Amino acid sequence: MKDKLIRAKAPLRVSFAGGGTDVSPFVEREGGCVVSATINRYAHGTLRIRPGPQVTIQSLDFGATVEYDPHELTQYDGHFDLAKAAINRMCPGEAAGLELFLHSDVPPGSGLGSSSTLVVTLVALLKEYRRLSLSKYQIADLAYQIERVDLGIRGGYQDQYAAAFGGFNFIEFSSAGVAVRPLGLPPATINELETNLLLAYTGAPRLSSHIIEDQVARYESGEGASVQGLRELKALAVEMREALVAGQLSGFGELLHREWETKQRLSPKIGTTQLAELYGAARAAGASGGKAVGAGGGGFMLLYCPFDRKHQIAETLRKVGCTVSDLAFSAEGVQTWTVPGD
């Protein structure tokens, strides 16, 4: 193992419908579902073994490298907690000499599931290091346990399973467990989505856990708008799945718009004045619909555009300060490989 590098990458995702229904306690009480797809942007990780007892974690995203004694890994203080918790869960008492190099293709807090995807990448790296045989379901569940249980970060289930499995999926969540159901879309449908979809980064990272805490509190208190909104989002996910499988994309933008409008009823923290203005500008320029791709409050927005207006919509958003890009989908979930070390 000392003469090799272990590498892993897991794809980020865009969520089309159902986001919010994958969060407890709605999952256990009523069951949730989402439609999501992974894209060709990734969380990357490299692991190698070095002499000595220290554990080294280097993050390109945060521009920092830190060395820890193994006993310091249990001190969760907001610095590299995801990596520390993954090591504690996967390598109890066996972390000496580990060196991790981590980076993501998008900024933290983007809404593309980057934190959970990074944990999936870490689980995959450490699985290979420990020579463990784990299914995609087990990788996703471990990532969920590390983030939601060990660290107590509020959030849903969908990001871990999307990153582990990859592709277009209808994912169901209930007290009985999680079921990932690939949509099996033909290339023509995927190509048409890529032709018409646009990603716009608002430049405003958000703390999704704060938004989700408010959403959960409103649901648990029985607030009518929140309860009904989650039920409508669940129904919209089923409608979105049916439209995609049938290749009926003429109303795809409207489905995104309905999802976004419905989700804003879950918590006032989801929508912001900036997002409303950006979305209004995109719609005025010709976008048929769109939504924030995470919990809300900032990050990336996904827009569905008529192909002959897409360039005009992109230019409109650039003028108001967004970074705009096309996207391509990724069919593969988390991947690992080894290379000779230096």
Report what the structure shows:
This protein has 342 residues and is an alpha+beta fold. It has two domains: 4-184, Ribosomal Protein S5, domain 2; 187-325, GHMP kinase, C-terminal domain (Alpha-Beta Plaits, 2-Layer Sandwich). The chain is built from eleven helices and twelve strands. Strands 1, 2, 3, 4, 5, 6, 7 and 12 form an eight-stranded mixed sheet that branches. Strands 9-10-8-11 form a four-stranded antiparallel sheet. The radius of gyration is 20 Å and the shape is globular. The relative contact order is 0.19.
The helicity comes to 25-40%
Structural class: alpha+beta
Q: What gap, in angstroms, lies between the N and C termini?
A: 12 Å
Rounded to an integer in angstroms, the radius of gyration calculated over CA atoms is: 20 Å
Order of helices and strands: EHEEEHEHHHEEHEHHHHEEHEE
Count of β-strands: 12
List the total number of helices. Answer: 11
Q: What coarse outline follows from CA principal-axis ratios?
A: globular
Share of β-strand residues: 15-25%
- What is the CATH architecture descriptor of the largest domain? 2-Layer Sandwich
**The CATH topology of the largest domain:** Ribosomal Protein S5, domain 2
What's the story with the biggest beta sheet?
8 strands, mixed
- Uncertain stretches: none
Estimate nothing, just give the exact number of structural domains: 2
- The overall pLDDT average reads 91
